[in-house]
Amino acid sequence: MENILMGLTTSLLPVNLLAVLFGTVLGITFGAMPGLSATTAIAVLIPVSYGMDPATGLIMLAGTYVGATYGGSISAVLVNTPGTPSAAATGWDGHPMALKGQATEALVESAVASFWGTIIGFVALLTIAPSLAEFSLRFSTQENVCLAIFGLTIIASLSKSVIKGLIGGCIGLLLGCVGMDPQYGLARFTFGQASLISGLPTVPTLVGIYAISQVLSMVAKRDGTVNMDASLSLVNKYRIKLKDLCYYPITYLWCGIVGVIIGIIPAAGGSIAAFMGYNEAKRISKTPELFGTGHREGVAGPESANNGVIGGSLIPMMTLAIPGNAVSAVLMGALMLHGLTPGNDLFTAKAHITYPFIFGILTSAFLMVIIGVSCAKQFAKVNRIPQNFLTSGIIVLTVLGAFSCNNTYAEVYIMLICGILGYFLQRMKIDLSAVVLGYILGPIAERGLVRTIIKTGSGMAAIESFFTRPICIVLIAASIISFSFPLIKKAMASKKAAASN
Amino acid sequence: MGLLVIMAAFAAFIVLTSGANEKIRNYPYIVCGVGFVFTAVQLGTTIYREKKELAISVPAPLTKEQSLSVIITLGVSFAYIFLASIIGYFTMTFVFVAGYSFWHTKTQKKWMYIAVALGVDIVVYLAFKMFLNIPLPAGLLI
Lengths: 501, 142
Description:
The complex is a heterodimer of chains A (501) and B (142).
Chain A: H1 2-11, H2 14-32, H3 38-50, H4 54-79, H5 90-99, H6 103-135, H7 141-158, H8 162-177, E1 179-180, E2 187-188, H9 202-220, H10 249-264, H11 269-284, H12 297-320, H13 326-337, H14 344-347, H15 351-380, H16 387-406, H17 410-427, H18 432-456, H19 459-466, H20 470-500
Antiparallel strand pairs in A: 1-2
Chain B: H1 2-18, H2 26-51, H3 64-86, H4 89-104, H5 110-131
Helix pairs in contact in B: 1-2, 3-4, 4-5
């Protein structure tokens, strides 16, 4: 309770309010531009946060995350082009609403639903994370190995192509092998470069994989920007009523919970949550037949679900060091840059930074709904920024971000090389989240495995020890299910197709 | 083609692993081996599907102009970082933003490229150097 009060009061300090306002506005701006996402926004803002007090810097990043997740819906509603992948489902009813002359209602609904989704995610994060972090103290090396394996098997179930997901995971694991091995301190794959001895640096690697690859994609599609000027005329005059602030309470609550659950699952992310949120909203709706025709509830479902992901994705990241999605992976890099290590320490020794960060999500939700309801139209205009200035600006800021991690140019080069890798893999349709998950979980799995073997004396004894621990058994069972489920599903689908033919 | 590159990369890392200390070889061997097998399976599936004329998920090939844009962007970025370490961050940022933006789209008025490049420099200086006190890269010039 003491931490909660401290978190609340710290997040309400003028400097922190200013930081969260800046983060939220910038997040909405990035989110509203198709092609840019919350990940890019946070990657660009990391160097800015570096110069700030850790709590203030992280609060700003929390604001960016919340703002960008909502911002994606603006272009989805106005031009049926989602600003972020997680806003794709919002356009299914949001854009038809705009075409019917109800663009403002759709934009208001998306802001309000995003607000409630964020609040549900915040409550989940605040209540579940500290207990889970405490529970993680029971984890020994065996549990850490099983947890990492479980995280990796999730890749298979979530990628469009199981094999491609696994290839991505292996590439990530290989990236995690670079540098000193976690047990003996002997160097691997360093190619004689001193800058690689401590491994690939987290922030430059993630910024390269996500932001630079995105910039290269934008450059390849020169006409990637979306002009919304014509669609701005769709924004009608609408007087907001008190009822608008909670039009579909059950939908917000249920879809928010769905978002939280999806967020907790590693690599699932906002898009899956939004699609599930849409389906759930339709399922519980009294008027499901109206979905797809420009129904307000069709905006509420996906928006509250994709914002519920915010809190959900931070739970495994902050407690078990397993990022729920790409944004939380980059946020984890930011935490580490500020000297914070995921785990129980975050909620005890570093509580003075962690709780204000969590409450930053809450304050950002309030700011987002105010800004979203009043200025959505203005944010749509950001798409007028020419792409050439946008790409060069992003490159300048990411270079600065990578440099400021350790004040060396080596990390900037690493970032660019990871960007090339990310772009190549993106072109190969290999899920970048799988690569990042492998990169983050690889060293955890290796460290745990080697220590278990040393502790138990042999490889066989180590394997045996996994089956004598209840948490390990549960995690192994979960891993088997998550790995085999998509394969069985695929086999059944092809059998069905063959039978119908 | 891409899958062959990935397979070759895994194979190269298997060879590199054999040069590492014995104590730390097992894990990279497993990772590279498994990665190699998965890539081979994917390659086999793609070839099979191509032969059977079944649908395969292949990205649309880049046009010559698109490839050139990507290569130039990367080349310019590497040059920007290299020269920034010698000449100076602010000078090179100005040159990079103005030059790259001009090359990318020549449709805007020329003074706009200069103004935006100058604006980026000023914002970075004020925000990062003055306000946030972040150590910025230094060179011969500023």
